[in-house]
Write a structure and sequence with these properties.
Blueprint (H helix, E strand, L loop, with lengths): L5 H6 L9 E2 L2 E3 L2 E3 L6 E6 L4 E7 L3 H16 L8 H17 L1 H12 L3 H21 L7 E5 L4 E10 L2 E5 L5 H15 L2 E5 L6 H13 L6 E3 L4 H10 L5 E5 L2 H11 L5 E5 L5 E4 L5 H13 L11 E5 L3 H14 L18 H16 L3 E4 L14 E4 L6 H4 L6 E7 L2 H9 L3 E2 L1 E5 L3 H10 L4 E4 L14 E2 L2 E2 L12 E9 L9
Helix pairs in contact: 2-8, 3-5, 3-7, 4-5, 4-7, 5-6, 10-11
Length: 506
């Protein structure tokens, strides 16, 4: 395992980063503390050191932010602008975000542990997401038609209107990207929003909101409340003035949000957990499959919803594939995300690190063979070795539960039917990947997999024009693409009589 000594770490190349320090919530265009005065400590997962604080927002802070968002919506300070005007402002926001790529990427890495090249790529993607949805602001078309009854004729048309105040609850694994994936369509539709970032990674959401306002989004249209999920997040989910909630995170929390949203029947979209299978057939380009499968699980230390955490390899090439991935794992350079030579960074928190290590131990106890890794890296920060567990028992926790760490379970299979059955034997259905040179087998197998997106001889390919979401307990609805705009709109039908309509006699 390759690690840095303290002396080597002191000499490593770094990218200058933005500071964190004491941050305040953003409500009605003003930075402010929590009404109760509480704060939350925020740590750098690369070192375990305190890097700043944010307010511990409570119900009263949520009420204040929602009231501001509701006022801006009712006063039409944003939705009342033409689609062309909103489009221009969103384009300016995308330009500003691109101009601040280095700052935002460094802040994301500091707060999240993400390696700098990945953070920079995701900031660039976020800017393109804004541009994609900016284009939709001028294309919110309804339909027109003439209908006829036996007695009269009518002209009818539909209007697509913003739903109102939207609560956007953001996870810790890719804060900037997932904030923008929700904010961009909400603003394109004309909504006002309240963002609740993860208490562990709040800094980029606050900075992004400032940049949107700098671009011209009126104050109070975007509000950011920091706090814990069980207080600020739960209040947003149940709030009777919130018309729509978008959440990315764990399936367990997603279920609680659905229950909380029931009181006023608010619209809900959920992008939840995954346990994505990667299937390698014996006719695959084995070298490409090995590299692709390693990237699918070890990128961002496995802290990606669609990480390829279950590897199924056909028997004739099982040993070759598993040992090839193990060699990659053992040579990955572990270190802080700010180090430009780092290939795999830390786990986001001490709590998550403990959970990952616990699941590794449970897999070994339940009969899996430890191929490589399995231990904490002994240095400051929250690091775990890239780990491969071979052939655990079918009901083992490491197969059934989302680990959200650099932990791969490798399982042998013989036939297509066998691997499809094993791949679909999960409560999740987010992503899946197939490696084969047989194009018919690739497409036929893809049709049988229960997953929201399937990659053929690749992994992690997404595009703003194509919807993303999950089957089963991996979520409700879709983000990205035209489908990602729909949850922020509602349709009104208008009927105009062209000829007198008869009335019933009393």
């Amino acid at each position: 395992m390759t690690t840095l000594t303290r002396d080597e770490a002191a000499d490593r190349p770094t990218v200058p980063g933005a500071g964190a320090g004491e941050q305040l919530m953003l409500i009605d265009g003003e930075r402010m503390p929590a009404l109760a005065g509480g704060t939350i400590d925020v740590f750098d997962p690369s070192t375990g050191e305190l890097i700043g604080t944010t307010p511990d927002g409570q119900a009263a802070d949520v009420d204040r932010a929602v009231a501001v968002a509701e006022r801006t919506f009712d006063e039409r300070v944003w939705q009342g602008l033409s689609g062309a005007a909103r489009q221009k402002i969103l384009w300016r926001a995308a330009d500003l975000i691109e101009q601040h790529t280095e700052e935002l990427a460094a802040l994301e890495s500091l707060n999240n542990g993400m390696v700098i090249p990945m953070a920079q790529a995701l900031i660039a993607t976020a800017a393109e997401t804004i541009r994609y949805y900016a284009g939709w602001a001028t294309k919110l078309y309804g339909i027109t038609s003439e209908i006829s009854s036996l007695e009269a004729q009518y002209h009818t048309y539909t209007l697509r209107e913003p739903v109102g105040v939207c609560a956007l609850i953001i996870p810790w694994n890719a804060p900037s990207t997932l904030t923008v994936q929700k904010v961009a369509p909400a603003l394109a539709a004309g909504c006002s929003v309240v963002i609740k970032p993860s208490e562990e990674t709040p800094f980029t959401a606050l900075r992004l909101a400032e940049l949107f306002e700098q671009a011209g989004v009126p104050r109070g249209v975007i509000n950011v409340v920091t706090g814990y999920g069980e207080s600020a997040g739960a209040t947003l989910a149940a709030h009777d003035k919130v018309a729509k909630i978008a959440f990315t995170g764990s399936t367990e929390v997603g279920k609680s949000i659905v229950k909380a949203a029931a009181d006023n029947l608010k619209k809900v979209t959920l992008e939840l957990g995954g346990k994505s299978p990667v299937i390698v057939f014996d006719d695959a380009d084995i070298d490409a499959a090995i590299a692709g499968a390693a990237n699918a699980i070890f990128m961002h230390s496995g802290q990606i919803c669609a990480a390829g955490s279950r590897l199924y390899v056909q028997r004739p090439v099982f040993d070759k594939v598993v040992h090839g991935i193990a060699r990659i794992a053992e040579n990955l350079k572990i270190g802080p995300g700010s180090d430009l030579t780092t290939q795999i960074g830390p786990i986001v928190s001490q709590k998550q690190l403990a959970r990952v290590l616990s699941l590794i131990s449970s897999g070994i106890e339940e009969g899996a063979e430890l191929v490589t890794g399995g231990e904490r890296v002994h240095r400051d920060g929250y690091y775990v070795q890239p780990t491969i567990l071979a052939n655990p028992e079918p009901g083992a926790r490491v197969i059934q539960e989302e680990i959200f760490g650099p932990v791969l379970t490798a399982i042998v299979f013989d036939t297509v039917d066998d691997v499809v059955a094993m791949a679909n034997d999960s409560t999740y259905g987010l992503g899946a990947a197939i490696w084969t040179t047989d194009i018919s087998k690739a497409h036929l197998t893809a049709k049988k997999l229960q997953a929201g997106f399937v990659w053929l001889n690749c992994h992690y390919v997404l595009d703003n024009s194509v919807p993303a979401g999950g089957y089963k307990q991996s979520g409700w609805g879709r983000e990205l693409g035209p489908e990602g705009l729909d949850p922020y709109l509602q349709t009104k039908s208008v009927f105009a009589a062209l000829t007198p309509a008869p009335f019933l006699n009393a």
